[in-house]
């Protein structure tokens, strides 16, 4: 057999084996990711949970505390994957995170790619972000709430610089009622920013404003807290 022909056969065999190996790695990686998702449990509750989006300024915009608590979830720099010249909330359902007790979480992003820094109201670093879902009448209703503080020093402003973002971990629910869910950033009772909508299953009890998580409801959300 001619040396050139033999060389071509060997090269072809090498790339065939390499392609097969890469394909097997991709399949194994996908199987591992699916396995991780299957191992994570969703949150099954019948009450409103506490708003839990805590954040604070990046080092560039750091300020001293006047008595309020500061979160360790500091603003990060954006990259080219973020939409340009915008201030928005984005709920990424393709990203899953697991807590210590194997509960699943999605990632919610608050992004500022405008040319100016933006300040938001906060209470001990908790931003005024709540979850909402469509009820049986097709109306958006809160399924989370923002606790009040008796201390006036708890209320302050947090700053998101230009080309910065915050990332929050929010629960993945399960229940009996199929609907849509979104997150909104409130300001004076008005929706300042509204996230994208996702399809979810929740329980009807989550619409009940008289039934709130409080501070000792089985620690449902504590594993995700900052």
- Determine the strand fraction and express it as a percent band: 25-35%
Structural class: alpha+beta
What separation lies between the terminal Cα atoms? 68 Å
Shape by Cα distribution: globular
Reading the helices and strands in chain order gives HEEEEEEEEEEEEEE
DSSP summary, beta strand count: 14
Largest sheet: 5 strands, antiparallel
Q: For the residues shown, what is the average pLDDT?
A: 81
**Number of helical segments?**
1
Helix content: 10-25%
For the structure shown, list the relevant keywords.
single chain; 226 residues; alpha+beta; 2 domains; five-stranded antiparallel beta sheet; four-stranded antiparallel beta sheet; 14 strands; 16% helix; 35% strand; disordered N terminus
Describe this structure in words.
Strands 7, 8, 12, 13 and 14 form a 5-stranded antiparallel β-sheet that branches. The protein has a 4-stranded antiparallel β-sheet with strand order 2-11-4-3, with no helix packed on it. A 3-stranded antiparallel β-sheet has the order 6-5-10, with no helix packed on it. By secondary structure, it is of the alpha+beta class. The chain folds into 2 domains: 1-39; 43-224, no CATH class. It has one helix at 3-39; strands spanning 49-50, 76-77, 87-98, 104-112, 118-123, 126-127, 129-134, 140-142, 144-145, 155-160, 164-171, 177-187, 190-194, 198-202.
Per-chain topology:
Elements: H1 3-39, E1 49-50, E2 76-77, E3 87-98, E4 104-112, E5 118-123, E6 126-127, E7 129-134, E8 140-142, E9 144-145, E10 155-160, E11 164-171, E12 177-187, E13 190-194, E14 198-202
Parallel strand pairs: 1-9
Antiparallel strand pairs: 2-11, 3-4, 4-11, 5-6, 5-10, 7-8, 7-12, 12-13, 12-14
């Amino acid at each position: 057999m001619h040396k050139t022909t033999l060389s071509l056969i060997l090269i072809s065999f090498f790339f065939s084996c390499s392609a097969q190996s890469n394909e097997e790695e991709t399949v194994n990686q996908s199987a591992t990711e699916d396995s991780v998702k299957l191992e994570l449990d969703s949150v099954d509750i019948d009450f409103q949970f506490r708003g839990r989006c805590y954040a604070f300024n990046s080092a560039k915009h750091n300020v001293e505390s006047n008595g309020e608590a500061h979160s360790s979830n500091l603003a990060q720099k954006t990259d080219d994957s973020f939409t340009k010249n915008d201030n928005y909330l984005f709920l990424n359902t393709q990203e899953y995170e697991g807590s210590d007790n194997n509960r699943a979480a999605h990632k919610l992003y608050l992004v500022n790619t405008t040319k100016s820094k933006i300040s938001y109201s906060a209470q001990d670093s908790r931003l005024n972000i709540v979850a909402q879902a469509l009820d049986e009448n097709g109306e958006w209703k809160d399924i989370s709430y923002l606790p009040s503080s008796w201390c006036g020093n708890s209320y302050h402003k947090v700053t998101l610089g230009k080309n910065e973002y915050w990332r929050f971990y929010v629960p993945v629910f399960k229940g009996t009622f199929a609907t849509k869910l979104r997150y909104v950033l409130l300001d004076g009772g008005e929706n300042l920013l509204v996230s994208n909508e996702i399809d979810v299953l929740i329980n009807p009890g989550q619409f009940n404003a008289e039934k709130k998580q409080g501070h000792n409801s089985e620690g449902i959300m504590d594993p995700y807290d900052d």
